[in-house]
Design goal:
Length: 372
Amino acid sequence: MFDKLPVSSKTEKILTKSLDEEISVEEANHLMNIKGHDLYPLLATADFLRHQIVGDNVTFINNCNINFTNVCTVRCGFCAFGKDADDPDAYILNDEQILEKAEGAVLNGAREFTLMGGVHPDADIDYYLHLLTLLKDNYPDVTIHGFSPTMVRDACLASGMDMAEGFEVLKDAGLDTLPGTAAEILTDRSREIICPEKVSVAEWVDAVKTAQEVGIKGSATIMYGHVETLEERVEHIDIIRQIQQDTHGFTEFIPMTFMHEYSPIFMEGQTNLGATGTQDLKLYAVSRLMLRDIIPNIQVSWVKMGFRFAQVSLIAGTNDLGGTLGGDELSEASGAPDGVDASINTFARMVRDLGRHPIERNSTYTEFYEIE
C-alpha cells in the first residue's frame, strides 16, 4: 500500500500493522507527532479502515438541543456558556418553553432530543425525572439523549441515592442514551487546570460504566486543544478503549476541538489557540486506528469545525456527522464557525460530493433511513 509513498520506515511499520490489529499507546503517540510526508499515508490508512469497517455510508441524526438552563456551579475554564444564578443572562426554561422547542423540532422531523444544561445547584433526580416525563408524555416516540455523567452524579448526591439507582430511575422515566460530555480530557493533571470542580477521571469512568451496566448506552467524547499534551490525547483514547472492551456500551466516539476565542482560560491569558487543522485530522485518524471496530462510529463535530473542514475530516477515518442540532447554545457561546443549525440537505450535499452515501439514523445506530 505504501510502496510509492515517501513515508518513514517507522510510520510505515505502524500503519501496516494497523491494517490487521489495533495499535499500541506507544505507536499512537508516534503517529500523533508525525509531520510532513507521513501525514497523508496516515489519513489514507484511517480512511481505508473506515471503509473496511463501516463502508461508505455517512450517518447523522435529525435532532434538537434543548438546553434547559445555563446556570452552572461547575465553572470550567473552557466554557463560555455557564452563568451564575444571579447573572442577568442566566435562564431556566419553564415547561412551556421546553415544549415549544420540542414541538418545533418534531415538526422538522427530529428523532432525538438532546437534553442538556448547566450543572444547576438545585437539580436533583426528581427535577431530571420531571424533564424526562414532560417530554416523553408529549413525544413518546422521540428518543432522549440526555444529561451528563457529572449532572447525574451530582443529582444522585443531592437526592441521597447511589448512581446505579439514579440511572435506573432515569432509564425507567425515558432516558434512552447518555452523552459522553464531562469527559473533556481524561487526565487529572489537565482537569485540575480546566475543570477542577468537575468529576475526576475515576469518577467519570465510574459514572459511565454504571450507566452502561444498567442498560443506558451513550457516546464517548474528547475535548482537546487546550492545555493537554499530545500524549494525554492518546491516554484519553486508550481509557475509552479499555472501557469499551469491558462494557461495549459506547455507541460512538466524538472528538471535539477546543474553541478558544471566548473561553475563560483564553480571556485570562492562556495562549493556546486550540488544535491546528493537521492535529484535528491526526486525532481523527489515530482514533480510528486505536478503536477500529470496537467503536465503529467516529463522529465529526461539524459545529466545532465548520461544514467545509468537517467534510474534509470524513476522509480521515470518520463516518458520522452527528446531529442537525437545532440550537446548540454551548457551541454558539464559544463561537461556532457555521452556526449551530444544519439541515439534512446540507449534510447530504457534503456527503454525496465525496462519493459516499448520506443516511439518517437513530440514537443507537440501530435504525437507518434513506435520504431522497
